[in-house]
Amino acid sequence: SSSSAASDVYKRQGKMVETFTLYAIITIIFFYVLYAKQKNKQHNNNKVIQIPKINKAKNYCENEPEVIIIGAGIAGSAMAKALGEQGREVLVLERDLSEPDRIVGEFLQPGGIEQLKKLGLESCLEGIDAQRAHGYIVLTSWNEQVKLPFPQKNVEEKHEGRSFHHGRFIQNLRKAASAIPTVHMKQATAIGLIEEPDRVVGVRYNENGVTKEVRAPLTFICDGCFSKFRKNLVSEVPQTPSYFVGVLLKGDNSMLPHPGHGHVFLADPAPILCYQIGANECRILVDIPNTLPSNIPDYLLEKTAPQLPEPLKIKFIEAVKSGDVRAMPNFKLHPKAIIKRGAIPVGDAWNVRHPLTGGGMCVAFSDVVVLSRALSSIPDFSNDDAVTQNLKSFYKDRQPLAATINILSFALYQVFCGGSSDADVRLAMQKACFGYFKLGGECVFGPMSLLSGYVV
């Protein structure tokens, strides 16, 4: 009957309003509570870490290091440099020291650059055709857009992000770490932790087909989001809320609506990201919730391409038809304090958030800064009690920045996706968030201060 149909419509509309209101309120609360928390606790000391040399209980060397690091990616390379500058003998085991080729880890927020400066690694952004990013542009399916600039401290000091080829940046980080005399990089595959009843004492690894062992007082697990050693320390299993499908577009920045900015297209069913990674290259990341379609190229051509503006759409179709399409899962793993004597997980091996907001590297570098400082007062890592005590302070001190970025990444993702399979709910949520940004002032300054990892 007509009355029954009308009732169903009202119920559906009521559900939409209820869902919209809930997410809108939660998101706004997150923005302001986290902004206040971050601003009150932000440390703006951007000087390079100055750590005095330390006296050892024993003499360590490459074959008997004080530290083993599994993985020479973002976190592993930065940690190797920070600990090597403390005078510690560090052995880094990396499965493949050639330049990696990935579709994520290509956008570094302004706060991440500040952390690089603290580690003395800002030069790693040079010589890799890194592109400056002044903020974001949010573009909608209803033909509106809003600019979200990164907050600026003053006219002289500009806060900018950088976007680049992930592999080139990694190679520069590895070079910087290897330049420290006490850091030794070895191409070898870690195959297992050596454990005694109450602690990790070393690592078994394969080098040129030969299985070997190395022991050290402290091992850092930095083997990334696909970590095979996470299960030794963490009981939780990462969730996979969505996938990114990456496409590389060739051509100068004229294909972009707003060069010098990251682009967020509020598409259906999830956001599409686009940014330059070189003077003549752009990356598009298409978020696909839940599971990947059976035919990804067809999905991109039929579902994604029509939602892109010209001439970006033309370049996108050309790239998809050329076959350069890759997918990667987006993980979620909440960090919990891990007290396992002899081992510390760092980076995506321990804490992963949705990459929509590009905060992963910012958190990783910040963790390296906070953790290396927390451990710097310990003369020798063989002192388990001292390591455990200082590790507790690290878990506390990392929270202002790390928790902010972690929560914001999924809050924004839920808003942009509507937290629902209902297209009407998704559109209502996107319009609400977009309307909030259009208010300008603190409605942009607050969220962008959080997202950038840097409160001015």
Structure characteristics:
globular, 11 helices, 37% helix, 456 residues, alpha/beta
How much strand? 15-25%
Tally of DSSP β-strands: 18
Describe the largest sheet: 7 strands, mixed
Helix content: 25-40%
Report the average pLDDT across residues: 88
Rg, Cα atoms, Å: 23 Å
The shape is globular
Instruction: Encode the helix/strand succession as letters.
Output: HEHEEHEEEEHEEEEEEEEEHHEEHHHHH
Overall SS class: alpha/beta
Are there runs of 5+ residues with pLDDT below 50, and where?
A: 42-46
How far is the N terminus from the C terminus?
Answer: 60 Å
- The total count of helices amounts to 11
Order the strands across the largest sheet as they lie in space.
Answer: 6-5-14-15-16-13-17
Q: Secondary-structure map with pairings?
A:
Blueprint: H1 2-41, E1 67-70, H2 74-84, E2 90-94, E3 107-108, H3 110-118, E4 131-133, E5 135-140, E6 145-149, E7 161-163, H4 166-178, E8 183-187, E9 189-196, E10 199-207, E11 210-215, E12 218-221, E13 239-250, E14 262-266, E15 272-278, E16 281-289, H5 296-304, H6 312-322, E17 325-332, E18 343-345, H7 360-375, H8 384-397, H9 399-417, H10 423-438, H11 442-452
Parallel strand pairs: 1-2, 1-12, 2-8, 5-14, 12-18
Antiparallel strand pairs: 3-7, 4-7, 5-6, 9-10, 10-11, 13-16, 13-17, 14-15, 15-16
Helix pairs in contact: 1-9, 1-10, 1-11, 2-4, 2-7, 3-7, 7-8
